[in-house]
TrEMBL record:
Keywords: ATP-binding, Nucleotide-binding. This is Putative ATPase (MoxR-like) protein. Residues 58-202 form the AAA+ ATPase domain. Transmembrane segments: none annotated. Gene3D superfamilies: Magnesium chelatase subunit I, C-Terminal domain, P-loop containing nucleotide triphosphate hydrolases. The keyword Nucleotide-binding applies. GO terms for molecular function: ATP binding; ATP hydrolysis activity. InterPro entries: AAA+_ATPase, ATPase_AAA-3, CbbQ/NirQ/NorQ/GpvN, ChlI/MoxR_AAA_lid, P-loop_NTPase.
Amino acid sequence: MSVTDPTPFSGSAGTADDKLVAEIETLAERLRLVRERVGRVIFGQEHVVDQAVITLLGGGHCLLIGVPGLAKTKLVETLGTVFGLGEKRIQCTPDLMPADILGSEVLEEGEGGKRAFRFIQGPIFAQLLMADEINRASPRTQSALLQAMQERRVSVAGQYHELPAPFHVLATQNPIEQEGTYPLPEAQLDRFLLQIDVGYPGRDAERQMLIATTGAEEERPVQVMSAADLLHGQRLLRRIPVGDSVIDAILTLVRNGRPEESPIAAVREHVAWGPGPRASQALMLAIRARALMDGRFAPSIDDVLAMAKPVLRHRMALNFAARAEGVTLDAVLDSIAAPLG
C-alpha cells in the first residue's frame, strides 16, 4: 500500500473486536510513517512532533510556546503536507481585525443593477490554521477565534458559516518578548487541547539540522495520510476502551489541581485557579491518542502521567505569593502527579 493511498482503514476480521484491533494496527503504522516523515524535516523535537500529532488525532488545537527559530512555523507547514490538509497562516499583529481572520461580506452589483451581499471567506476557512504569535493580536481579534475553535463555525452578519472538517488551530507564542502583547484569556486558553513547550534541540540533532538544511538540497515533506484518514482516526480514537483505574487516575489528577478541594498542600498554597472538567476530557482524548500512536489497544496510567503537563499547564495559574517565592507550575504539577506514580 502506498503511503499516499487515501483508502480508509479497514479490517477483515469477522468480529467487531478483531476489526477494531486491525484498524488500530493499521492506523498505528500510518502514524509511524507520519512521525518518520516529519522527523526528516524537523530535527531534535520528537516530543513536540508526537504531541502535535496527538493534538490532531484528538481533534483539538494546540499552543506552541518557544523562542524564535525553533521551527514552530515549519512544523505546522510540514504537518499540513504530511496529513494532506489545506493549510493557511495568519500573522497576528495589534492591527489585525476579526474580519481579517473570519472574512467579510461585500456588496456586489450584478446584471440589471441588482445588488447583493456576498460572503468572502477569510483564512480561518482552512483545515489547519496557523496563528503565528497569537498573543500579539488584540483581545477583540483573539475572541474571534473562540467560537471557531469550539463550535467549528463562525458567525458573520448574523449568518453561520461552517468550517471545513477537520479543523485545527495551531497557534504559536513567543515567551520572551512581552511588550506589545495581549495575554490570552483563560476562556481561550482552555480551548487548546495541549500546550506544547518547544525547547532547544540537542547538540547531535542541531548538528544534523545544520548539515541537512544548508546544503544544495533540502528534504521535503511527503504526504502520508489524507484528511479522510485523519477524520477516520479521530472517530476510531473514541472507540478505544479506557479502564476504570485509568479513569480514576484522570479524575484524581485533575481534581487534585483545584485548590478548593485538593489534599496537596502545594496546590492549596500556590494555585490561584485549577483545571475544569474540560481538562479531564482533554486528558482522556490525549491518552487514547498516545496509546494509538504506540499501537496499543488501551491507554495506561503511564499515559496519564506523560500527558499531564501538556494538558494542565495552560489550565492552571499560580497565585501572587507563589510567583514571588519563585515556585514554578511544573513543580506544582509534579506534586499533583506524585500520588499516581
